[in-house]
Amino acid sequence: MPAPTSSKNREAEPSAEDDERQRFETLQSATQGVTHDLNNVLMGVLWHLELALTPGVTPSERDLHVEIALRGTETARALTGKLTAQTRAPEPAGETYFLGELVQESEQLVLHGSSVVARTSLPEELWLCEGDAGSMRRVLDNLLLNAREAMPNGGSIAISAQNVELDRNNREGLPPGAYVAVSVTDTGPGIPEPVTARLFVDHVSTKDRERGVGLATCRTLVENDGGAIFLETTGERGTTFRLLLRASADRRSIVRRPPASTKPTHVLVVDDDPQIRRLFRTALEQRGYRVELAGNASEAVLAFSLVRRTSGTSPIVILDLALDGTRGGLELTRDFRNIDGDARIIASTGRHPTEDELLSASFSCVLTKPYALGELLAAIQLVHDP
What we know:
Shape: globular
Number of strands: 13
Radius of gyration: 23 Å
Largest sheet: 6 strands, mixed
Helix content: 40-55%
Strand content: 15-25%
Distance between the termini: 48 Å
Structural class: alpha/beta
Number of helices: 11
Strand order of the largest sheet: 1-7-8-6-5-3
């Protein structure tokens, strides 16, 4: 087997100047890639919504178009987050996710309507991964899209994964420990050897429609998450990309949560935007929650105290950390703690809080905007039934 072209392996140790230049080139390409990919995703969303509204479309076809459009908005949400992520130092996230769900979502979004067939093989005992699920969804989207465009007349993509333990002498240069190894193999024409040397850096492509920038983006996202991505090719037909993703510390396989409690739960939404408050109320009341709204710190403390006094239990708080007024979100958190030391507070923020902020506030959960309704409901359930 030929040696892989790896984002972690280098034939010679680069100088500090070379490393800085390469990082700049990668950042430049990755930022261009975000814009490029976002435009394509939004185009897909628009087209699927238009198709859903086409006269004569069947209910099942309409539902499928809407479902794919929703998946596209999730991808777009991840892309916008990476515009900021590309400019800050790598900081592996601590989110736990199941790779199989991401693979299924990417297959539905990218391969729907094409003549490319996906063949997936994931063991039932596959470990959970730890990192940024949105980043990994985008990596899979890029790899599948590149493979699809490499096979305009049809073909197949084989996706497999396995649990691996890396020792200190592993060839990828990763810290020893548990990882999930992923392989994505297509039956396309392959990648010429001259292109592979800078495949993960420059905006290069072997196709008429340039998509190579997605690989520079993939490299950044995977390495920021503490993993590695590399290419294995024989110079003949077919291309295989291999990824090593950090496994969750407990290494358990996918865990299904029990159904949410049917007992009505009080939720206090604290946000200075009235439109956002109304949106929260509509969504949560439809799902059986009792919702209180507050637009500033004074209203929030009053509503929190009233619910606690009348029901005997403090409400779950969804708190906008960028709350306008003399007392911001972090200060208001301390007010809630003074009333109830065990207050359950979900932080809602456009940026992830710093480590110092997390330690001082002791949030029950942090949601980074924009987040999906399903993520909000999962957070409420997690806080309500820990």
